[in-house]
Write a structure and sequence with these properties.
Immunoglobulin-like; four-stranded antiparallel sheet; 46 strands; disordered N terminus
Length: 615
Amino acid sequence: MKILFYFILLTLTVFSQIPNVRVSSTSSNDPEEVVIAINPSNPDILAAGANISYFYSSTNGGLNWGQKNLTSSLGVWGDPCVIFDADNNLYFAHLSNPMQGYWIDRIVVQKSTNYGVSWNDGAGIGYNYPKEQDKEWLAVDLSTPLYKGNIYMTWTEFDNYGSYNSQDSSRILFSRSTDKGITWSQPKKVSDRSGNCVDEDLTVEGAVPAVGLNGEIYTAWSGPLGIMFDRSTDGGITWGQDIFVSDQPGGWDFDIPGINRCNGLPVTLCDTSKSPFRGHIYVMWGDQRNGTSNTDVWLKKSTDGGNTWGQLTKINDDQTDRHQFFPWITIDQITGIIYAVFYDRRNTTGSATDVYLAKSTDGGATFHNFKISQSSFTPTSSVFFGDYSNIAAFNKKVYPIWMRMDGTSLSVWTAIYSDTSNIVPVELTGFNGFYESGRVRLEWATASELNNKGFEVERKLFNSNNPLLTNWHSLGFVEGKGTFSGKSVYYFIDSENRSGKRVYRLKQTDYDGAYVLSKEIEIDNNSQPGIKLRQNYPNPFNPSTTIGYELSVEAQVKISIYNSLGEEIEVLIDKTLPGGEHEVEFKPRNLASGIYLVRMISDAKAAEMKMIYLR
């Protein structure tokens, strides 16, 4: 029987020119290094900042902006970061240049309870004479039960800023406030490996904190080992061992024509939305792995809390050998859509520069790029351009912010992008599902967009061999991804127990949480075998290891080995076996040392474990 239902599809908007709004006043000509934040309690209220002491505010969704200069007895000296908490408090972090003390002797966080109309004098964090404190960033826990309201900050401490002395080093530090920015904890060292103090490639810099689903704190930074990652699971009290994310060819400090100084320091994010990619961690950065004349923007993702990192994704989708630089990235935590902003020269010559926005609706697997600046500008290296651009997003309102340079005059701009892509209902027919040895086969037919003569039929088998799988569910079913006219749509297995049977449905979802369920497939629970996968021994292992497993009844069994990228590299067992205890030996062939995943599938059950191979 054919079943007709609506299929929810996220479409790519045909982007028209987005109007640009000047943030800085026409009387100022020197602001640079910009940041922007949205008040989650009232998204029409925006805050922004720029070097050295500029503060900007809007109460009408970015249509109009006010400007003022921040002051503090501790000094206001650049590296601005603004952020709202869930109680309408606004925080502005920056470097110091105090009346009593010395340049960048601490990090300063000022607080406003009236959206920036007035500010307190600020709290000084990290004073440690004669060391210097630099490149800070803030994050706030907006929702988790244990740590809601906590404010977190990471930054770089220098023994002697700019020193070439091999005895001087730099490190990543962390502090937190549990009383809404009034007091801050004694700084803790996060980075296991220190860098030098030159403020170039071998200095550790760029730590941006992010909050996880359960209050975890994540951060990544650049340094002599490449891009490294660390995390805290107890509110920042303790930190783990550094985990390698990626190399960064050419380092994080590189040359771009027309730019006084350019960096590709990383930004760390975690998806806390209810999107299909909830809990995924992202690190974005820029580097010159494709040559000194071809700077690009890159992304890696972790789906296991930062233990392992997936494949490298290029965010800029051009095929040129031109520069894309000064990137920043954010997640709309309502929709789960990722947005990145960067400067771009794909369609210009010389040093002429545009600003582009990149958007991903598939958890960072692919990005669609479009130009957001209304006109190009040409910077000159004789004028300092700052170290970063920025972007914020909330509930489909996206606010990139950037500098432009006209002659030698600098100005700050934003573009108000309302991401109101329509969800187009598409008729489907011919959906069938049936249980087949622990797998669900799904068939559907989509109306042809090439002609109106009928339907195109697509079939997907959702099992471990499906190259489109992303993550495993606890029951052993996987998520899948299909396409319709080149646009991504996502399928998920939804299930529940009902009257002694397990009921499965195909769940088709969009990023607002709306979904459609297919017809149901019922499987008798009593017919499904129990399974148990035991930890391999020895572990770590070399040259071989033994994997034990158990079946409650006779069943079809498949045991496979996967690498850290989720690629199946070997099938150890794929046959029907009697109930009872079993073992299988694994002898790696030409594998690198690392963590590998053992995955066992039997009917509607699945189990997996990790093991370590040391060459």
